[in-house]
């Protein structure tokens, strides 16, 4: 079959496919940070590879920089069009959870900065603000590089990143939670939920806690719930069904609950902790968003 016009033959790329595959997890991380969607990030990285094949590679001085810039540009275009699609999404739109591990073979190289809470806040930024912030503060690109990506001056990009940074800071919890405390609260919450212990659930939930559920119109998840006691009452019924199970795992670099029914994954619950209590529960049940979560209940 003839190759598409302008696409290099494999043997003319001089080892570049291997370099690209080595960079793929990082490129996936950049695209995922900009989009919050693994599926969209995969499409973006594949498009970057196609564009590389159609480029005279001998003229590229910095292949890594070229790939990051190209991936970023494609992702930003996707992000701009995705905003309208997300406005039409059935129910709340939450990012796709990524189960994280120290394994360098992971498909997505996830920066420690891209916690679940950070991704949720990033959804409130404009595409340009998000791009400037993620590329500079998370992936350490210069404002000159970001300016070339966004088609704006470095000064304008610096202002975008500053505005985004202020917004992110204003949405952070007043009190930082250390890793051990976060893990302890999540473990206790998992035990209380799995056993249906209403009293423990009430004690673990902040009185003003909010539960947000994303089923994407595919899975019935009901409306969100506000108030710790209401959420506790709702969750206390979980333990009455012996076919349900919970696995605590690292998701987007923080402990979260992976929930199962009859051995099949139901969804992921990311918990926001404030002053030792669960303040937010983001439950992702849309099956199209669970591809990066191990689908078995075994630890």
How does the SSE layout of this entry go?
Layout: H1 16-35, H2 38-53, H3 63-87, H4 116-122, H5 127-138, H6 143-150, H7 154-171, H8 179-195, H9 198-204, E1 205-214, E2 225-226, H10 228-236, E3 244-251, E4 254-261, E5 264-274, E6 277-284
Parallel strand pairs: 1-6
Antiparallel strand pairs: 1-2, 3-4, 4-5, 5-6
Helix pairs in contact: 1-2, 1-3, 2-3, 3-5, 3-6, 5-7, 6-7, 8-9, 9-10
Characterise this structure.
This protein is of the alpha+beta class and 299 residues long. Strand 3 and strand 4 form a beta hairpin. The protein contains ten helices and six strands; from the N terminus they run αααααααααββαββββ. The longest helix has 25 residues, at 63-87. It has two domains: 10-171, PhyR, sigma-like (SL) domain (Butyryl-CoA Dehydrogenase, subunit A, domain 3, Up-down Bundle); 179-289, Nuclear Transport Factor 2, Chain: A, CATH 3.10.450.50. The protein has a six-stranded mixed beta sheet with strand order 2-1-6-5-4-3. Helix 8 (179-195) runs antiparallel to helix 9 (198-204). The radius of gyration is 21 Å and the shape is globular.
Please name the CATH topology of the largest domain: Butyryl-CoA Dehydrogenase, subunit A, domain 3
Overall tally of domains: 2
CATH superfamily of the largest domain: PhyR, sigma-like (SL) domain
Low-confidence segments, ≥5 residues, pLDDT <50?
A: 1-12
Q: If classified by CATH, what would the architecture of the largest domain be?
A: Up-down Bundle
Largest sheet: 6 strands, mixed
Distance between the termini: 46 Å
CATH class of the largest domain: Mainly Alpha
| DSSP, total strands | 6
As a whole number of angstroms, the C-alpha radius of gyration is: 21 Å
Please provide the ordered H/E string of secondary-structure elements.
Answer: HHHHHHHHHEEHEEEE
pLDDT average, as an integer? 89
Beta-strand portion reads 15-25%
